[in-house]
Amino acid sequence: MSSANDNNVEGHALLPMGRSSEDGSEDGSEQSLSFSEALAEEDWDVISKKPKERKSIFGGRKWIFVLMVILALITIGVAISWRSKKTTSKANSLEGIAKDGYLLHGDWNFDAPPQERIFRWNITDKTINPDGVYRPMILINGEFPGPLIRVNEGDRIIVHIDNQASNATSFHWHGLFQNGTNHMDGTVGISQCPIAPGAQFVYNFTVPGQHGSYWYHAHQAVTASDGLFGPLIIHSKEEKKLQPMEYATDRVVMVHDHYYNLTSELLVHYLEPDRENAEPVPDTAMINGKNVRDCSTAPSRKCDSSSASLQNFSLDKGQNHRLRFINVGAFAEFQIQIDEHDFAVTEVDGTDVTSLERFHRLNILPAQRYSIILTTNITTADSFWLRARMVTTCFAEENAELQSEVRAIIQYGSSPASGALTATPESKDWSEVVELECRDMNTSSLRPVVAQEAPHRADVTVPLRSNFEIGDWKLSRGWLNQSSYRPNLKSPSLHRIMSGIQSKDDFFSTSSPGPSGKKITYAFNSDQELVYQTTGITIIDIIISNFDDGAHPFHLHGYKFFVLASGSGYFNYDYSTINTTNPLRRDTATVEAFGWVLLRLVADNPGIWPLHCHVAWHSEAGLLMQLWTRADMMKDWVLPKENLDLCQMEGLEKGGGPDDEIWYGAMKGLQSSKKPPP
C-alpha cells in the first residue's frame, strides 16, 4: 500500500496545472488481458495450478541420487529461511491485496509546509481472489483496494496514470472542491474524456481549504467496483483541536459490496428492456478488501479461500481510537456496529462534528463517510466483532450466493505475531430490533464544530423529480425531470462550454433559443443533459423529490451543501420550521423512497459540476444533472493540451456503458426515449 511516506511519493519541481513531467515510473506488472479473454481462459495458472510432468533424473546411479538429496536438503533449508519471511506461498497467496489495515501512522508531520505529493499508478488487469473467489479485476499498482493518498491541507497532489488495462478509465477525487481546477475533477463526459488503454495522464491539483476523510474512484461507467478505488485523507494543522475528542490511533475502514461477475456484464443485464430497475444484487461484502468465503457455498465459482482472512484491528486497551468509515461500494447501504461498544460520531463527509448523543450503530450509504471515536474500555473480553450488514430490504431481487454480513475483529492489545491465530470473538450482538428502512441515519444531533449559518433564503429553487420509467419493455432508465443522462465520451461538457465561450459568440446559449434569425450554438442535448447555469454567487435550493421505491444517495461534485430538511411524501414548501443555525454540511445526502430532501448551496465555485445518485447502477441509468456555476469567471480559462488530447485517443470508449442501440438498433431506444410526464 502506498502512502505519502512510501517510495511512490517523490519531490519534483512544481508542474504547471495539467502538465506532466517525463514519467520514469517502472511497470513491473504482468501483461494485461482483456476481460473477454479473462472470461474465456479456463486454465489460467493463477486459477488452476496443475502439476507439471517431470522426468526422472536418477538414471540408476546411486551417487547422483545421494548428491541430489544433499542439494535438495540445502534447497529446502533456503526455502524455509525465505518462507519464514513470507507467510504465504505463491500458489495460495492473495497477491495484490492491501494487508496493513490502512493505519495512519502517528509520525505524520501535521505542521509541514505545503508540498508536492507525487504518486505513480500503473492500471492493470489481474485476476485475484480477495475472499477466495477468483474474478478479473482492475488494479492500481497491483493492489486491492487501491493505495492510500495521505496529504496535508494546502498540498499539491500529482498522480501519474499509466493505463495498461484493457478498458479506458478516469479518476474522480470524491469530495474535493477543485476550485480553479474543474478539468481535474475526473468525470468522464463532463470534465474530461476517458484515459484510453495504453494512454497516460497526470492529475495535478491542490487541496486548500478542506480536510478530513475523502476517497477516489474510477468515474468510467461502473468500473470502480472492479477494483479502482481507495482512501484519500487530508490532514489539518488544527485537526486535533477540531476533533471533539482526543484519540491515540487513526485508521481507515472501507466497507463495500463485492460482485463476482464483471460490472460490465452486470450493467448490460441491468439496463436491458423490462428489467424494471432491478439492480444487481451483490454476492458478498468486504472490509478493506477482506473477507473469507466458504467455498462450499459458491459451488459454481473458482474458489480457494485458504489464504483469505478477516480484517483485524489491534487497538490498545483503555484508549480512544479514530475509525474513518467510508462506503466505497456500488449499491448496498450498510449498518455498522462494534459489539458491546458505543461510540461518538466526530466527522461527516469531511466536516468535523460534535454531539451529546452516543451511537452503537452507523448507517452508511454509498460514497458517505463517518469518523467515529471508539473507546476500548470493555472488561468482559479482549476481542469483539465489528459487523457490517447490508440492508437487504433495499434489494429488488434475491441472490442465492449473497453473504450479507462481513466481519472484522477488534482486538485489544498489540498486533499478534506473524502467523499467530487471533482468538475468535465471542462478543454479543446488540439485542434491539434493527431498522430496515433504506435511508440516512438520523444526524439531527450532529453539529459542525466550525459553526456556519446557512443563508436564510435562496435566490433560486431547482426542483428535481427523480424517477425510473419502467414496464412496457422499456429500458431501465432513470430520469431527473425530463432528462436521462448519457455521457458524451468524446466531447465533455466542459470542453463544449469553453469552446462556446472562446468562440466570442454573443448568442452562445446552453439551452434556450435566442433572438429570431440569430444562429444559436447549443452546448447540450436537453433530453440527455439537464444543466442549470448561474452567474455570480447564487444561493440555490435543490429540492429532490423521489418517485421511486429505492433510496438515492445524491452526491454533488465541487461542493458541500447544507442539509436543511428531509422527509417522506411531498415537500410542502413551508420554510417556517427550517433550521438555518449551523446545519450539517456534507457532499452526499440521501433521499428516501417516495420522499424528499432539501439542500441549500452557496454556488461560488466556477465550473461544471455533476449532481448524481451514487448508486453506481442508478447513475449509469441516467440519474445525473449538471450545475454550471460562476460561468462569469470562466471566460479566461484555457484547458491544458493534455486534457484535450485525451479525446483523440483510440479506444477511449472501452469500458463505457452500453448504447441503447444494442437493443433497439435503428429505433435508437424509441420506447425509452419517450419523456415521462412532467
From TrEMBL:
Coiled coil: none
Pfam short name (any one): Cu-oxidase_2
InterPro entries according to UniProt: Cu-oxidase-like_N (IPR011707), Cu-oxidase_2nd (IPR001117), Cu-oxidase_C (IPR011706), Cu-oxidase_fam (IPR045087), Cu_oxidase_Cu_BS (IPR002355), Cupredoxin (IPR008972)
Keywords of the record: Copper, Membrane, Metal-binding, Oxidoreductase, Transmembrane, Transmembrane helix
Positions of the Plastocyanin-like domain: 123-238, 251-414, 488-630
GO MF terms, alphabetically ordered: copper ion binding; oxidoreductase activity
Annotated PANTHER family: ADR239WP, MULTI-COPPER OXIDASE
The family this protein is said to belong to: Belongs to the multicopper oxidase family.
UniProt-recorded name of the protein: Multicopper oxidase
Source organism (scientific name): Venturia inaequalis
